[in-house]
Design a protein that fits this description.
With about 260 residues, the chain is an alpha/beta fold. About 45% of the residues lie in helices and about 15% in strands. The protein has 9 helices and 7 strands; from the N terminus they run H-H-H-E-E-H-E-H-H-E-H-E-H-E-E-H. It has a 7-stranded mixed β-sheet with strand order 1-7-6-2-5-3-4. Helix 2 runs antiparallel to helix 3, helix 7 packs parallel to helix 8 and helix 8 packs across helix 9. The longest helix is centred in the N-terminal third of the chain and has 29 residues.
Length: about 260
């Protein structure tokens, strides 16, 4: 199944309607932001009322459902298309690490929409933000306060049946085909005895890549698709595994030959 490209053709093909397309795209992003703020307010109220396990399950499922709603609205607009159906088979698999390349700010929104038991790694400053941190705290997302703390929390979550989403590049791609991998994915996988599933995000759009401002309208339609890659077992040497993983992604990424500013 592939995301349709034919909706709202006038907004896409007629230059004089591009200001309207820009406005609609901004409304979609604003809606995503307002939805996030609303859920964080609800999560702040739920935090003291729910057990750790119930809060984690509810928090992750609610975030996934909200992101899925954003993508449905985006697809209906015809401007921003996403097909992540390939990873739906992973949704109920416990103790799994999912790793992906990172071309856009929307990558986590896209993948989490199909993975309701998945935890993300968040900057500690965002996790402590009173406007953004409550939802992440309820879902028990992993804070990157320190490398040791990140590994410990991730391993505990995987052993409890969760999933972990990691972008080993650490930031959005700035160098073709991938940035150097910095993630502790090998260490986490070895300690949790967890398999590592590679996922490729394919796009020919520069939209919300590194250095792309929110207000800039890209070529339309904006299309993202997701495909499953190989599944790995770490073995005894996490550093060697990480080098192998980086080489695998470097060989498998498709898209523009370099990130577009």
């Amino acid at each position: 199944m592939h995301a349709p490209r034919s909706r709202s053709p006038a907004l896409i093909t007629r230059p004089w309607l591009r200001p309207l397309a820009w406005l609609l795209l901004q409304i979609l992003l604003l809606g995503l932001g307002l939805m996030s703020l609303t859920w964080n307010a609800v999560a702040w109220l739920l935090l003291p009322l729910l057990s750790l396990d119930r809060g984690r399950r509810l928090g992750r499922a609610a975030i996934a459902r909200g992101y899925r709603g954003f993508w449905h609205a985006s697809r209906f607009s015809g401007l921003l298309q996403m097909d992540a159906s390939a990873i739906a088979v992973l949704a109920n698999e416990p103790g799994l690490i999912i790793v992906a390349n990172h071309p856009s700010m929307l990558d986590a929104v896209m993948l989490v929409s199909e993975l309701p038991r998945c935890a993300c790694v968040m900057k500690a400053s965002l996790a402590r933000n009173p406007f953004l941190g409550a939802g992440a705290s309820l879902a028990r997302y992993i804070r990157n306060d320190s490398s040791l703390g990140l590994v410990r929390l991730a391993v505990d979550d995987l052993k409890a049946g969760g999933q972990l989403l990691l972008f080993p590049e650490g930031t959005r791609t700035t160098r073709w085909p991938v940035n150097p991998f910095h993630s502790a994915v090998g260490v986490i996988a070895k300690r949790a005895k967890a398999p590592v599933q590679a996922v490729f995000i394919d796009t020919d759009s520069p939209y919300l890549g590194k250095g792309w401002p929110l207000w800039r309208l890209p070529p339309l339609p904006i299309v993202f698709s997701v495909r499953l890659g190989q599944r790995f077992s770490v073995g005894d040497d996490p550093r060697r595994f990480q080098a192998e993983l980086e080489a695998y992604f470097a060989a498998g990424v498709t898209g523009p030959q370099q990130p577009m500013p």
